[in-house]
Predict the structure of S-formylglutathione hydrolase.
Amino acid sequence: METISENACFGGVQGVYRHASAVLGCDMTFGLFLPAEARRHPVPVLWYLSGLTCTHENAMTKAGAQAHAAAHGLALVFPDTSPRGDGVADDDAFDLGQGAGFYVNATRDPWAKNYRMWDYITDELPRVLMAGFALEEDRQAITGHSMGGHGALSMAMQLPGRFASVSAFAPIANPTASDWGRKQFTAYLGADEGTWAAHDSSLLMLEHGFRGDLLIDQGASDQFLDLLRPEALAHAMAARRQSGTFRMQAGYDHSYFFVSSFIGEHIAFHAKALAK
Amino acid sequence: METISENACFGGVQGVYRHASAVLGCDMTFGLFLPAEARRHPVPVLWYLSGLTCTHENAMTKAGAQAHAAAHGLALVFPDTSPRGDGVADDDAFDLGQGAGFYVNATRDPWAKNYRMWDYITDELPRVLMAGFALEEDRQAITGHSMGGHGALSMAMQLPGRFASVSAFAPIANPTASDWGRKQFTAYLGADEGTWAAHDSSLLMLEHGFRGDLLIDQGASDQFLDLLRPEALAHAMAARRQSGTFRMQAGYDHSYFFVSSFIGEHIAFHAKALAK
């Protein structure tokens, strides 16, 4: 593993590291914030999955998350959103290929060779992190924005017991019924829609729910509401009788100004769940 | 004035606006955060001057300042760092020309035509802001990072009574004795070093000091310490018996991870001064 940079930040260290991913068949870069406490003992960790077009860097520099993670003694992981590099399949569209992994294991060419973001985030990267840094494997939580909110919710529901809590900012909540989902699932997973349900938070909510704490924030002035379909997730949560909170925030859009406005509350929420 | 964007942010609005600058002879873009209070009455304003290579956008997206400004009911102004555009003189170096205005009025060609950042920040932009937004002209404070810290300190000391308080993150503290200064002052102001002293915070401190509250933060692991010369400013502050605080922060570098780590304390500091 290669250290790209390490910056002092709120008494801890904001690092950026690169490693060879066997699962994805390329080098991958991730950000990791370690609070001061990590110098003395392992700390709990909050995963932050990013949205379309993002790299490891967007949330790391724009969400204002480190202040709150430092206050609560949490580590933050900022993975990239897809495999990367010249040898990795791509598409001219911003919402397919590099920067748009959608947190699935692709089964269709040309994507199947590298696009295994589900396994990367749920298996390989956790092993890299737990082996290399002072993190508590049994105290993990997950959040994400947009496509990353979809990833966070899908993983939290598919891997019961892994995450104490899950939250999301403006998640792609019902991708099997949206152009942010149908296009990508067709490309990555094929036309058989039966394989898609495992990656749709609203369907997963109806079928499995989540045993743990759950918080959703959605901006009421989000320019992508038709693609995100928050109403499907809100309906599913209520129909499931899922304990948790769904908040529609008046005036907020899809930007990091929205994320940063509420990241403090999300991190406090996860810290409380991780302290149980 | 043209509205480029307005995003809900911490209960207020983060706006980006463009206007035709008569002083600079080009269109200029600035960011303005207005807290919720500005919907009901004018609010005090904190200027944030940015560093080399920055635009209006860097601090606006990476400093995490809005959370604290909202908590204290302050507006934040994020100006650009130089005139811009195809018709504006430039240089291939990152530290001269566009992105590197150094907050002076250039008197030498080819810079004199557009590079009048002193007048823009101290005269034209304030008039634009006071005419267009709910801001209190008699409650202003100023801060900045690196080249912007130099600008903030220079303006605060040259314009007594304008700013209730001044702070800086890793300011270029002694440009007349640094390659971050001598090169640019030679280009913009000419070889006569007598004209440079009005733009050197350490010299201004010795000569004028600042009547108001003053706070300096400098990272001890800053990669540009030799160019910033914080020791000159610390010496001048002590020699002047200037009331204020100079903090050397162990481990921190020159990045926005440093700025964001302490921006909350700076904004609280300015809010307290503005409440006097």
About this structure: The mean pLDDT of chain A is 97. Chain A touches chain B through 24 residues (CB under 8 Å). Residues 50 and 59 of chain A are 7 Å apart (CA to CA). Chain A has nine helices and nine strands.
